[in-house]
Amino acid sequence: MGGSAIAMMIIGVIIIWGGFGASVALAISKSKEAKRKV
């Protein structure tokens, strides 16, 4: 495996975790808004 393959893997992991974190943050903010309306 060359350095570029390792870099691609690291970038892929960051993108996956970044998307996961964004979806979790979005779900938390939506649940907070729902609680305020009740």
TrEMBL record:
This is Methionine/alanine import family NSS transporter small subunit. The chain crosses the membrane at residues 6-28. It comes from Siminovitchia terrae (Bacillus terrae). The keyword Membrane applies. Pfam families: MaAIMP_sms (PF16951). InterPro entries: MaAIMP_sms. Keywords: Membrane, Transmembrane, Transmembrane helix.
